[in-house]
């Protein structure tokens, strides 16, 4: 199995719920290493740029408003099959459809306030990691 990296964001709702550590524990428990990490409050331009792929979608405006509503924690995770492993830990986009024991089932309130983001492909993971971290701030092990 290939060692991959993925970009993960703990969204404003989960930061406000004080569950950063619990979410980090799930990553570590699944064998994902945190190889870069930063807490930040996204500007509107940063959020719009990050979600540019969704710019034409009806939920784009609400998504951007939500993502700038409070601080987030952004991390790069590294490990075997990291992209899919991380998405399995997150659960379905809509927490009502998320499997029991997933981050979204346990911590998310709605499809908008859904606790976490995770890259959906190797190509997007590379783009998204570079969006937040210069190579010198990713500490591969
Ligand atoms: P994410 O990108 O945040 O990891 O989530 P995802 O892949 O599961 O979902 P995606 O389709 O990429 O959508 C990005 C975020 O937009 C919000 N969304 N709202 N109201 C809606 O129908 C709707 N659909 C998506 C969610 O917050 C989702 O995480
Ligand atoms: Mg997505």
Automatic annotation (TrEMBL):
<dbReference type="InterPro" id="IPR036850">
    <property type="entry name" value="NDK-like_dom_sf"/>
</dbReference>
<feature type="binding site">
    <location>
        <position position="104"/>
    </location>
    <ligand>
        <name>ATP</name>
    </ligand>
</feature>
<dbReference type="InterPro" id="IPR001564">
    <property type="entry name" value="Nucleoside_diP_kinase"/>
</dbReference>
<dbReference type="GO" id="GO:0004550">
    <property type="term" value="F:nucleoside diphosphate kinase activity"/>
</dbReference>
<dbReference type="GO" id="GO:0005737">
    <property type="term" value="C:cytoplasm"/>
</dbReference>
<feature type="active site" description="Pros-phosphohistidine intermediate">
    <location>
        <position position="117"/>
    </location>
</feature>
<keyword id="KW-0418">Kinase</keyword>
<dbReference type="Pfam" id="PF00334">
    <property type="entry name" value="NDK"/>
</dbReference>
<keyword id="KW-0963">Cytoplasm</keyword>
<feature type="binding site">
    <location>
        <position position="59"/>
    </location>
    <ligand>
        <name>ATP</name>
    </ligand>
</feature>
<feature type="binding site">
    <location>
        <position position="93"/>
    </location>
    <ligand>
        <name>ATP</name>
    </ligand>
</feature>
<comment type="similarity">
    <text>Belongs to the NDK family.</text>
</comment>
<comment type="subunit">
    <text>Homotetramer.</text>
</comment>
<dbReference type="GO" id="GO:0005524">
    <property type="term" value="F:ATP binding"/>
</dbReference>
<keyword id="KW-0546">Nucleotide metabolism</keyword>
<keyword id="KW-0597">Phosphoprotein</keyword>
<feature type="binding site">
    <location>
        <position position="11"/>
    </location>
    <ligand>
        <name>ATP</name>
    </ligand>
</feature>
<dbReference type="GO" id="GO:0046872">
    <property type="term" value="F:metal ion binding"/>
</dbReference>
<dbReference type="InterPro" id="IPR034907">
    <property type="entry name" value="NDK-like_dom"/>
</dbReference>
<keyword id="KW-0460">Magnesium</keyword>
<feature type="binding site">
    <location>
        <position position="114"/>
    </location>
    <ligand>
        <name>ATP</name>
    </ligand>
</feature>
<keyword id="KW-0808">Transferase</keyword>
<keyword id="KW-0479">Metal-binding</keyword>
<protein>
    <recommendedName>
        <fullName>Nucleoside diphosphate kinase</fullName>
        <ecNumber>2.7.4.6</ecNumber>
    </recommendedName>
</protein>
<keyword id="KW-0067">ATP-binding</keyword>
<dbReference type="GO" id="GO:0006183">
    <property type="term" value="P:GTP biosynthetic process"/>
</dbReference>
<dbReference type="GO" id="GO:0006228">
    <property type="term" value="P:UTP biosynthetic process"/>
</dbReference>
<feature type="binding site">
    <location>
        <position position="87"/>
    </location>
    <ligand>
        <name>ATP</name>
    </ligand>
</feature>
<comment type="function">
    <text>Major role in the synthesis of nucleoside triphosphates other than ATP. The ATP gamma phosphate is transferred to the NDP beta phosphate via a ping-pong mechanism, using a phosphorylated active-site intermediate.</text>
</comment>
<feature type="domain" description="Nucleoside diphosphate kinase-like">
    <location>
        <begin position="3"/>
        <end position="140"/>
    </location>
</feature>
<dbReference type="GO" id="GO:0006241">
    <property type="term" value="P:CTP biosynthetic process"/>
</dbReference>
<keyword id="KW-0547">Nucleotide-binding</keyword>
